[in-house]
Amino acid sequence: MTPDASGTGNDRSSAPRAANPRKRPRRHASPTARRQRRAACLFLAPACIMVAIYVVWPILSTIRLSFYNWDGMSDASFVGLANYIELFHAPTFYTALKNNVIWLALFLLAPPMGLAIALYLNQAVAGIRLVKSLFFAPFVLSGVVVGLIYSWFYDPTFGLLALIMGHGIPVLGDPHYATPGIIFAALWPQTAYCMILYLTGLTTLNSEQIEAARMEGARGWTLLWHVILPQLRPTTFMAVVVTVIGALRSFDLISVMTGGGPFESSTVLAYYMYDQAIKYYRLGYSAAIAVVLFAIMLLYIVYHLRRLLSSEH
């Protein structure tokens, strides 16, 4: 019998070649997949157009405007980096930047306080709905209303704080107390907002993991730290990001309560930007402040986003 006939020879021409897994034939998308992709693009198109018009284009226009000197009426003149150079040499800029840091440090108390209130409200006890509505109230109030309420609260002649202390304290009239007083007022609605986020996050907890941890003897702080908080990590990220953005763009309470005073001691970057644009018609200089504020927000959010993504992996 010849080797070819026995099938045991060295001639491999008649044997089928093994398919190379790396070289797979290209498969064309089916008509159904193409229709689904086209439908997804059509549904996303209005949102993308809105974002491009109302978010991307204003950001690019503001960056471009920051290189010009413009009062809003006459022709704009190109000045290059002159607005940024003047900004970094202005004492008010560093006062506003310092106040933003103070806002950021104290405003980060809102997420843990919101979590504590959410854990308290996440109980099935009698009358808890009434208590929830009381804690929800600050969230639906506008910043102007909150500013007016706390302006009356701090009033040294007839305010509630003067009645509690027994004597008037000019909180909003003292450069040392004005910024902490405004931040204390702003924490009221911000804590309510974080509480709502955590109440929503608590409804998505895995009850099986919690029951298993309790069977293992986990209670109190141990259960919260090792079981509940890891599941609330996305909610915590959202609460921190929203709180940071709120601290950096704080404007309404400052405008209502102090107007940046006394002696510009309570001004922040957002109010400084408004002041230069509306009062002094320096739109290019105001745009430079906006670009710096946007860069600070972007760096902080990207940093926390990278930390969240790295922790997920």
TrEMBL record:
Keywords: Cell membrane, Membrane, Transmembrane, Transmembrane helix, Transport. One of its GO terms (cellular component) is plasma membrane. Residues 1-33 are annotated as: Disordered. Residues 20-33 have a biased composition (Basic residues). Residues 1-11 have a biased composition (Polar residues). It is found in: Cell membrane. Residues 96-304 form the ABC transmembrane type-1 domain. GO terms for biological process: transmembrane transport. The chain crosses the membrane at residues 39-60, 101-121, 133-153, 182-202, 223-248, 283-303. It is a multi-pass membrane protein. InterPro entries: MetI-like, MetI-like_sf, UgpAE/MalFG_permease. CDD domains: TM_PBP2. The keyword Metal-binding does not apply. Belongs to the binding-protein-dependent transport system permease family. PANTHER family: BLL4140 PROTEIN, DIACETYLCHITOBIOSE UPTAKE SYSTEM PERMEASE PROTEIN DASB. This is Sugar ABC transporter permease.
